[in-house]
Amino acid sequence: MATFVDRVTLHLTAGNGGNGCVSVRREKFKPLAGPDGGNGGNGGDIVIVADGQVTTLLPYHRSPHRSSDNGGFGMGDHRHGYAGEDLELPVPVGTVVKNSDGETLIDLTEPGMRFVVATGGQGGLGNAALATTKRKAPGFALLGTPGWSGDITLELKTVADVALVGYPSAGKSSLIAAMSAAKPKIADYPFTTLHPNLGVVQAGEHRYTVADVPGLIEGASEGKGLGLEFLRHVERCSALLHVIDCATLEPGRDPLSDLDVIRAELEAYPVPDGQLPLLERPQLVALNKIDVPEARELAEFIRPELEERGYRVFEISTVSHEGLRPLSFALGELVEADRAARREAEANAPRIVMKPRAVNDAPFRIVVEGGTYGNVYRILGAKPEKWVQQTDFTNDEAVGYLADRLAKIGIEDALFKSGAIAGSTVVIGPGQGVVFDWEPTLTSTAELMTSPRGSDPRLDGSARPTRGQRRDAYYERMDAKAEARAELEREREAGLWMEDEQE
Prior knowledge:
Blueprint: E1 7-13, E2 46-51, H1 58-62, E3 65-67, E4 87-92, E5 95-99, E6 104-108, E7 114-118, E8 149-156, E9 162-165, H2 172-179, E10 197-203, E11 206-212, H3 227-230, E12 239-245, H4 255-268, E13 283-288, H5 293-308, E14 312-315, H6 324-347, E15 365-371, E16 374-380, H7 382-389, H8 396-408, H9 411-418, E17 425-428, E18 434-437, H10 467-493, H11 499-502
Parallel strand pairs: 1-3, 2-4, 9-11, 9-12, 12-13, 13-14, 16-17
Antiparallel strand pairs: 1-8, 2-7, 5-6, 5-8, 10-11, 15-16, 17-18
């Protein structure tokens, strides 16, 4: 069964916001005393907290699904819904939080750092909060928005000052046990260490942490052995200590070849942007197991060659503790020098300038997409997407309120400029979104005009007839009446009809 986990994927669901309430206050002699619906409560957030007492991500490996509480619904008599309780997830110091695309959200390098990784939904307003001087008794309320839901990755990178690297069974666990109060597992077979061990070393005025990284072998950077899984724990270290086994009995191995293999694996491992490559950091060499006579002779033999390469070499024995004191002081000096350089870099770091959002920055954008039955106009933006989530589409008054909100931020004008016409398909939000046929709002009589482009019938001349035209029309009517009477008289004289028959 796994006892150490340094990389997990969490499936998070933040709490949903509660719905607002539609209610009307009723009192004696006042059956309709005004709206009194309360607001819904906000959903709980999910917060990642760096805790110095936590050393592994194992609890999240066993139960990766986490969710926070939902907000309560609003009620009548101005009673607001309760807010959902936040969920705090403690993680070890040195945990990197990444999203589903692999982008780093935050690096928790200090104890107590907090990061809201999943934001809870916003509670909806009740009809009491929506009342205005023009809308005194709203018959609708806003719905609560859903909380954030998705996957994140937690990746643990040990925060230590010195990393012990070397072949399996080189004596790294024995060294950290001899230099500190740590009690790692020690045995006489390879890959005894299955997870990094931390130890605190006190050398005079220097106090620093040492990490025992599981053994590296040739091809570790390509996935062989355990190196690929744990090389990330070397990224944060200020210095490297190569622990070399001078008493190995394996054929084809010697201290110099072991050092070359480890250096090649460290060089092949890519570090994040902005960090110093592993081989460019301060490095020391510890020739271990000199309590064995043959190992002492081998250490004395290869030491000059290592010093020619520029290494500072220490001959040590974790059994007799020989050479450990000067090694601990040398590591302390390297760590202190690195800390001083970091403090100077932080003091000279450029200031972070916070710029406010531009006042003319549009809260949405329109993307024109081709469809089978014509163009589809997709509206993307935080405001319109949230407003759609808050709308109860079974309530006509709520839909009208949504239309007013969208019109205020200029969506209709933007749709006109994008080429939309009445009846065009409009989608709000990504993916499926909310689909509807757009009917523009009539804000003036000019929108009803059907005259050709560039003309205005209101500017045409008056169509009122003149006095002469009215006189001519009158004479035409009189002549038509006289002709009709004459025609009837001719028919009577011809005997076509008699006055008695007519009666």
